[in-house]
Each structure stands twice: as C-alpha cells, then as structure tokens.
C-alpha cells in the first residue's frame, strides 16, 4: 500500500473517530437536556409530569418499593406529599404525608375526595399505571396554603384609594413572605396594591395572567388569584420563588437556560475536541512532513543524514531503535530518503577518494618523472653545447643513457596508470579459467630467461592434482615477475627461489614464493608493499620503477586473493598468495 492510500485510510479513520466522539457527546448532552426539561416540568406540574416519572423509575427491593430520590425531593419542594395504595385501598408507601391524611381509602371515599364531592384539605391528583404486570396507584396531594392566605386577605382587606388596608397580623405575615397584594379591575388594570415592588407589573392581560399562574419559574414569582363575580374584581397575591427578590425575573426561561447550557457545553466540547484532534492530527501528520522537509534541507546543505534529536539519534526512531508509529504512514518516503542519503554519502566519499587519488597520481607523476627527465635534460644540454666536440662513441653513450631513461619513464608512466586504475577499484578487462600447474610453470620458465637471473635459480613444486583458478593472465604474469625480481635483485648472488602450488583442505589455493636469501628486518617487512620504499636514483639500473611490490599487492587483491609476508633476518623470505575456497573453479 502506497503513501496515498495509507494517508487516506488514516484520515478517514480519524475523521470517523472524531464523528463518533462528537455524536456521543451530542447524545449525552441531549439526554441531559431531556432530563432537565422533565424535572422542570415536574416541578411546575408534578401531578401531570412527575407521577408518570415516579412509576417509570420505581424499583422493587424485596417487598419494598424504591422511588427516585430526585422526584421525591421535587415533591417536598412543592409542599406536597405522596402515597402509594394497593388494590384494596391500603397505603403501602407514604412520603411527607401530614397527620390528617388517611392511611386507607374506600373506593367511594377516594372518588368523592378526588371529584370534590366531599371537602378535603388538600388538592389531589391520582396516577394509575401498570408496570411489569403490577398496578401502581399513586396519590399526590398539595396544600393550598397560598389560596387559603389569599382568601383571608380578600376577606379582611379594605381598599382605600390606591392602597389596601390590612389588619396588623395579616400585614406582618405578608411582609414576612416578601409577597405583595394587588386588586385588579375587570380589564386587568391595577386599582390598588400593598407592598408591591417597583418592578412588578400593574396590568394583566388574560394570557399574561394564565402564563404567570402556570409557569411561575419564568417570572420568578408564584401568584394566586381570587375573582369576585359580583364586582368583577380580581385579588392577586404574588410570592417570590426561592432565590429571587420581590419583582425580580429570571434572565431567561428555565427551558431556554437548559438549552443554552446544553448547547453551549456541546459547542465548547466540540471546539476542545477539535483543538485536541487538530493538535493530534498535526503531530501525527504534520510532524513527519516537517521532519522530511528538514531532512531535505540538510541534504541541500550537504549533510547527508537524518535530522537527529539532542542525543544524536534520528528523530523518527524510538529508544529501542524502531520506527515511531506516526512515521509509518511515510515509511516509503523515509526509506527513499535513507537510501538517497546513503548514496550521497557514498558518492561524496568516492569523490573525495577520487580527488585524493588524482592529486596523488599527479604528484607521483611529477616526482617520479623528474629524476630521469633531469638526466635526459642534462645529456641533451651536453650534446647541444659548442664548447666540446663529442666523439661518436661518446654520443652513442649519451644516446644509450637517454634511451634507458626514456624507457624507464615509459615504464613508470604505465605503472602509475595501473596503480591509479587499481586504487580506483578497477577490475580486470577479462578473466579466464586456467589450470595453474602448467600455466605457472610456463610463466616461471619465461621469467627465468631474464639475463640478470642465475640459471637454475628458480624451482617449481606443482600441486599433486590439477588446480583451476579464474585469473587475468597479464596481471598474473606481472605479479610473478615482480615477486621473482624482488627475490633476486635484493638478495646476494646464488639465492634460490622455490615456487610451490598447493590445494588446501577447504578448497582454497596457495602459491608460495620462498627464497633462501638474507631476509628482512621488521621495518622493511612492514613497508615492503609501499611505493618507492627501496627507491632508485638516476644512476640505478632501469630494471624497476619502485612500484613493483605495491602493484603486486594491488593486483593480487584485484584477482580476489590476499598476499602475506613471512621473513626473518638470515632465514630468507616467504610470500604467500592465497585464494579462498569459493574462488577455485
């Protein structure tokens, strides 16, 4: 799966989670709003809304019934009481019941009280509902204290102009309740009042009177009315609800307040959720993108590495060295950047090595050609001068030296070119499978024809069985020539060189060059394969360039083998060239 689809699936998944969380929050908020509205309605008209909720929430615990404590608290706030009776009219549960309320009812008795055929000191409401096969009959009663007090005020109160006169006891009770009394004409306009606050209204329309009677919590006061049919006047008693002063009204209706709180909480929760999701989304998606951009900036500056933290570890890895989860979606991109950084590092290193080799090659050419070129230049000046008349033999002698030095320069340039090629990682032009017993014998016989080598100075010990290697013949010939020359030219006369070919048990091949010469000290052995260690000068014979052993080591390694030296003063020298088992054919 590529980055596009991984990123798409991640976004869809995160948005789906965000939607589910927001939907859950909305459901919780609307459930709370419904509960609060039901409680408000129960407080306003418990006999209509509260009794049904009581039956819905009732639970059986053994032989007893448990009712919702909040609904029972609402009954107490309304100065009401509650009874549950069985099919025989006996009370099984009672809450806040006054002493004068019966503990059992006959069928006709309860009907008369409910239909007000017989006087009863309380206003009654009955709710009958079947739940789980059980009939629940609830009786809700409420004391009409307000109506009783208003009746007394209407009977004892006297109008005096725009004022109402009351006996001292009634007036004191009215002020204690922070209530006020108004007398309205037939058109609802106030004609007299007592203890009325400034904020109270002075005119009541029919809808206004009804709304204030049914929804006291909207207006902050409960009102009771008594209408005089003869005079068409209305006595109005207004009592502030708990938490409100005389004439104060709530800023908004309870229903609106609940909706405002619920919707406001939902909006705030959604914004907080969106903030959290945005931060999380930015961290999960944006942080890796910034990481990749910083990585590209480092590459642009020539720093071919991944951005690291203060401890020097790549930011995309955790403490255990594994890729952090937020970077998984960009795994392909990060892998490509790692590959690119590695390639650029290798190219940079290769460029440095190439430049170093180039500088060394130029320096080597300049240094190595200077000595023979000085000799050629000197003899050329001698031939050019008019001061002397050179004989024919002298001219030929000068020409011979110039030719030798020119040949030496040509060989030196070829060796330097080969050295540069090998150190640059160059490979052989072509290789072939060769049977080494016959081929190595032929090479040694050819090398032994050199006029400076003693006749019979080279002994060859072939392997018992045929040995096959994949080699490049010109390079192998050069290796043998250089090792043989090193044995004869840097040892005393009469030195014998023994070359042996062996097959190892593991399948490898070893070629050993052993002489019985003087051997080498430790310093010479350590630096044998360095360039120009033995050195030459303009008067030395032109049999070497000073690069032979360094070239031999490079050629051996280019053919997939390794070269080792074993020597001691007075015990001769042994050089081993070994191919591992997987190199044998």
From TrEMBL:
Keywords recorded for this protein, A-Z: ATP-binding, Kinase, Membrane, Nucleotide-binding, Phosphoprotein, Transferase, Transmembrane, Transmembrane helix, Two-component regulatory system
A GO molecular function held by the record: ATP binding
Lineage top rank: taxon: Bacteria
BP-aspect Gene Ontology terms: cellular response to phosphate starvation
Chief localisation class: membrane
Residue runs in coiled coils: none
EC identifiers of the protein: 2.7.13.3
Domain Histidine kinase: 364-583
Transmembrane segments: 12-34, 258-281
Compartment(s) where it occurs, according to its Swiss-Prot or TrEMBL record: Membrane
InterPro entries membership: BphY/WalK/GraS-like (IPR050351), HATPase_C_sf (IPR036890), HATPase_dom (IPR003594), His_kinase_dom (IPR005467), HisK_dim/P_dom (IPR003661), HisK_dim/P_sf (IPR036097), Sig_transdc_His_kin-like_C (IPR004358)
A single GO cellular-component term on record: plasma membrane
Presence of the UniProt keyword Transcription in the record: no
Catalytic activity: ATP + protein L-histidine = ADP + protein N-phospho-L-histidine
Name of the molecule in the record: histidine kinase
